[in-house]
Specification:
globular, two-stranded antiparallel sheet, four-stranded mixed beta sheet, alpha+beta, 6 strands
Length: 78
């Protein structure tokens, strides 16, 4: 069964990837950055959506692109 989306969620003392639409267990990561990196890699590979769930404060993300410039965005959740 193919994945329909991937969610990065808080998980106790780290972060996890929930793979929606499959019976796969959560993949655990020690840092938010590691979880997002793994989530983006899989989302690109499978052409599915990546959701990042409740973040407190601000997090700065950087995505490597095919172009020489990087794309940056600020995520803030109240």
């Amino acid at each position: 069964m193919p994945a329909t989306s991937i969610s990065v969620v808080p998980a106790g003392h780290g972060w996890a990837l929930d793979i929606d639409g499959t019976p796969e267990p959560r993949q655990l990561f020690p840092t938010l950055e590691a979880a997002i990196s793994a989530g983006w890699a899989r989302a690109r590979r499978e052409n599915i959506e990546l959701n990042i769930h409740p973040l407190t404060g601000g997090v700065r993300l950087r995505e490597e692109t095919a172009k020489s410039a990087d794309v940056e965005c600020d995520l803030k959740v109240a």
